[in-house]
Amino acid sequence: MTKIACIGEVMIELAVAPPAPEGTELKALSYAGDTYNTVVTLARLGTQASYITRLGDDNYSDAVISRLQAEHIGSENIVRQQGKVPGLYMIHNTPDGEREFFYWRDRAPARELFHHEAEVSALEASLADCNMVYLSGITLAIIGDEGRSNLLSFLRRYKDNGGKVAFDSNYRPRLWQTPEQAQQANRDILGLTDLALLTLDDEELLWGTNGDAVGELQHRYANCDIAEIVLKRGSEDVVILQGQERTTVPVPKVTNIVDTTAAGDTFNAGYLAAHLEGKSPEQCAQQANRCASVIIRHRGGVIDKSVFLNEVAER
């Protein structure tokens, strides 16, 4: 039985390759995406997981399927759309070491997730015995109004049958028409969420702040009936809210940080894997911190499997 199904978009990634001759810029090809990064890490931690997306009928989509299968991730609910290719993004490194991202995803097949009734019905049947589904605010943003409406209906039925929902808001302003549209979509999904994996920077960017971020978050979502809220705050303590109960978990200091891009995705995987094993919230956060501390010491959202597992075991 699949313990968790992750929903979202995986894209073709072109990142900086090793130094090239002067006047040229070489790029290395890979695949990434927030929920894709999470599902790969979940599988590496021993969680039975599957991935839900829409891909094309091209060689790059074939490669994504092959990579998922090599990680023992279920791909049976991935729809292949004729004549389409996945979205693409390119990473450019600026002279000061920062990273700029450029996207080509407007026609990606993943944008049609939850737009087709037959696909939704098939997915509902397939996930009848799945413990949890996980998705992010990026998923919400790219599927548009129709997709979001159908997704919410699907999640209500899924929860009525005993399933649980995990959600990471992962707010990216350029994917939304207005902040107000994103706020409403987040309210809607958090009203169906059992485990919210939120990030302080995203919360403040989307909602603003008067200084008491945790108190504001508690007030904002008081009527959402979320069983467990996890607030990631970078190098500061993780805060876990369960009703009025508050738990803080220290984040160990990490040196030699190379790339923080997928830190949140990997943290989520560590937390979800432990949560599905019945661990306490504190134990979940400790495992999540270990996973995140490994990924930020390497470049890329998905690193070599043996390197990841060996370093997680050492921390």
Question: What is this structure's SSE topology?
Answer:
Elements: E1 4-7, E2 11-16, E3 27-32, H1 34-44, E4 49-52, E5 54-55, H2 59-70, E6 79-80, E7 88-93, E8 99-104, H3 117-126, E9 132-136, H4 137-142, H5 144-160, E10 164-168, H6 179-190, E11 195-199, H7 200-207, H8 213-220, E12 228-233, E13 236-242, E14 245-249, H9 263-276, H10 281-295, H11 305-314
Parallel strand pairs: 1-4, 1-9, 2-7, 5-6, 9-10, 10-11, 11-12
Antiparallel strand pairs: 2-3, 7-8, 12-13, 13-14
Helix pairs in contact: 1-9, 9-10
Provide a descriptive summary of the structure in words.
The chain is an alpha/beta fold. The protein has one domain: UDP-N-acetylmuramoyl-L-alanine:D-glutamate ligase. It is built from eleven helices and 14 strands. The protein has helices spanning 34-44, 59-70, 117-126, 137-142, 144-160, 179-190, 200-207, 213-220, 263-276, 281-295, 305-314; strands at 4-7, 11-16, 27-32, 49-52, 54-55, 79-80, 88-93, 99-104, 132-136, 164-168, 195-199, 228-233, 236-242, 245-249. Strands 4-1-9-10-11-12-13-14 form an eight-stranded mixed β-sheet, sandwiched between helices. Strands 3-2-7-8 form a four-stranded mixed β-sheet. Helix 2 links the parallel strand 5 (54-55) and strand 6. Helix 9 (263-276) runs antiparallel to helix 10. The longest helix is centred in the middle third of the chain and has 17 residues, at 144-160. The two termini are 30 Å apart.
